[in-house]
Amino acid sequence: MDIQFLEKQLKAVSDVNRLTLLSCLKSGETCVCDLVDVIGISQPAVSQQLKKLEEAGIVTARKVGTWKHYRIVEQQSPVIQAIIDQLPN
Amino acid sequence: MDIQFLEKQLKAVSDVNRLTLLSCLKSGETCVCDLVDVIGISQPAVSQQLKKLEEAGIVTARKVGTWKHYRIVEQQSPVIQAIIDQLPN
DNA sequence: CACATATATAAGTATATGCTTATATAATAA
DNA sequence: TTATTATATAAGCATATACTTATATATGTG
């Protein structure tokens, strides 16, 4: 893992809202609308944050009708895994 | 470890220059002037970055004459330790 | 003392970040 | 088709970040 990619992944998680999203996703696949209900920011803001996590390879999504279900990627780098482990369930 | 402190530590390491500084410090205590020689930013910039790492509890320093020797704190949180482990020596 | 060296702090600035509101897109239902 | 719901994208803006240069501080030397 080169240092540039490490930086990208770390930037993706160094934000309270994105850490909270990851914390929510620990309990399993969740659609955007449910995530919006949990954290106190707008729906577009949640979409934007999820996109950052997705671009860093930390979460992935599948579409189900109009819903989109996000989940944490199973195989993570040791660093990201350590972070996920620290988050409350 | 609460999520706010986790965020603070992650923000402190989510930058290529600070990761490079940590990478240098893996080989042991180093003074600011030697770190300046290694990474391509000015001396004040290095001091500012080291301050961020220090405020996050990741590095510490001791003064020796006019020099200041920075080093990585021994006991780290699992997350920060995982990051340090990933860095080249 | 004056001067040199190492480091820190201050001030300014360009870019990045993370929200907001408005709007676009996609799928579904009536 | 029109309307509704879920999500994404665009644009704008306020704040944060990370440099730079200039200057302050601290220590050591002649």
Break the fold down into its secondary structure elements and pairings.
Two copies of one chain form a homodimer.
Chain A: H1 3-13, H2 16-25, E1 30-31, H3 32-38, H4 43-55, E2 59-64, E3 67-72, H5 78-86
Antiparallel strand pairs in A: 1-3, 2-3
The first copy, chain A, binds a DNA duplex (30 and 30 nucleotides) through helix 4.
Quick gist of this model?
By secondary structure, chain A is of the alpha+beta class. The first copy, chain A, contains five helices and three strands; from the N terminus they run H-H-E-H-H-E-E-H. Chain A has one domain: Winged helix-like DNA-binding domain superfamily/Winged helix DNA-binding domain (Arc Repressor Mutant, subunit A), CATH 1.10.10.10.
What does this structure look like?
2 copies of one chain form a homodimer. In chain A, strand 2 and strand 3 form a beta hairpin. With 89 residues, chain A is an alpha+beta fold. The first copy, chain A, has helices at 3-13, 16-25, 32-38, 43-55, 78-86; strands spanning 30-31, 59-64, 67-72. Chain A has a single domain (3-86), classed as Orthogonal Bundle (Arc Repressor Mutant, subunit A), CATH 1.10.10. The first copy, chain A, has a 3-stranded antiparallel sheet with strand order 1-3-2. Chain A has 5 helices and 3 strands, in the order ααβααββα. Chain A is globular, with a radius of gyration of 12 Å. The A-B interface holds A 1, 3-4, 6-7, 10-11, 13-16, 19-20, 23, 77-79, 81-83, 85-88 and B 1, 3-4, 6-7, 10-11, 13-16, 19-20, 23, 77-79, 81-83, 85-88. The structure holds a DNA duplex (30 and 30 nucleotides).
